[in-house]
Amino acid sequence: MAAPIVGSLNLSLSAAIPNFVPGFICVLHTFGRPLEWNPHIHCLLTEGEYSDDGFWRTVKYFNYSYLRKSFQTVLLNKLQKRIGPSFRKTKSEIYRKDKNGFYVYAKPNLCDPKSIVKYVSRYLGRPVIVLSRIDSYDGNNVAFHYNRHEDNAFVKKTLPAIDFIKLLIQHIPQKNFKMTRYYGLYARHREIDDKLYKAVHKSKHRIILDLNTWRKRFLLTMGCDPLQCPDCKKEMLFLELYHKHERVSLEELYKRVMRKHKLSPRSRSA
C-alpha cells in the first residue's frame, strides 16, 4: 500500500501547482529500534520542482503541519477504500485522537552531496539490527540494546533465541516486493526526461554525463576502487564491459550517451 499512499500524497502536495513536479525517493521500513512491527517511510525530497515546459523552481519552505494532515488524510482514505464502510468509525476516532495529523519527522536539508549519499546508502541497505547492537548469546537467550526514540534512553532487552528470530523474520518482505520507490522526477520512463537535463546548469553537464571519470566517481560513491584487487591490492586491467547481458565497448557506450545528449565526445581515460 506504500506506493499508492506516497503517490497520492505527491498529487496532494502539488495540487495547487499541477504543472510542477518534485522528485521523491521513498524507502519503506517495517521495524523500529526494539525490532517491533513499525511500518514507516523514509523520504528524500528535492528542494524544487520541474515544470512541463522545462522550468525549474526552487522550493525551500515546507509546511510540516500541512504535510502531517495530508499524510493522515491520504492514508486513512486508502485504508477506507481497501477495508470498506466498516472502517468509517475507526477513521473518525483517529481524526478525533490525532487532530494535528500523523507523526512526520522532517530533517533539515541535505544539499551536500556527501550527506545525501550517506543518508541514502544508510537507509537502502540498513538491516533490521546491526551486529554491534547484539550484546550476547548464551545458547538460549539473546541480549541486545537500543536507544529509545522518544527520549534517547538506553534500553537493554534479553529474549529467548526463538522469540528473537521471530522478531527478525517478520520483517522479511515478500518475494519481488519493492522496498524502494521513485516518484516524480525520479520515476522511470517519463517523456519529459530528455528535457530535464537542460534545467541543470551547463557547468554541471560534464559531471553528470561524461564517462571519463567513471573510476573516480565509483571510488567516491562506493568507497572502493573498481580496478584494485581486494586481495593483493594490485591494479587490475579493464578488459570488457557488459550492458544488458551483452558485451559492449566502453568507448561505444560513452559515445552513445554523448550523442544522445548532443555533446562532443572527448578522449576516454580511467
Q: What does it look like?
A:
With 270 residues, the chain is α+β, with helices and mostly antiparallel strands. Among the domains are: 42 residues, no CATH class; 61 residues, no CATH class. It is built from nine helices and eleven strands. It has a three-stranded antiparallel β-sheet, with no helix packed on it. A three-stranded antiparallel β-sheet has the order 3-2-9, sandwiched between helices. The chain has a three-stranded antiparallel β-sheet with strand order 6-7-8. Strand 2 and strand 3 form a beta hairpin. Helix 1 crosses helix 2. It is globular and about 60 Å long. The model has no long low-confidence stretch (mean pLDDT 80).
Measured as a percent range, the helix fraction is: 25-40%
Oligomer: single chain
First-residue to last-residue Cα separation: 44 Å
In the predicted model, the low-confidence regions spanning at least 5 consecutive residues are none
Shape: globular
Which sheet architecture does the biggest sheet show?
Answer: 3 strands, antiparallel
Percent of residues in β-strands: 15-25%
Order of the strands making up the biggest sheet: 1-4-5
Total DSSP helices: 9
Average pLDDT over all residues: 80
Roughly how many Å is the radius of gyration? Answer: 23 Å
Which structural class do the helices and strands define?
A: alpha+beta
Number of strands: 11
> Helix and strand succession?
HEEEEEHHHEEEHEHHHEEH
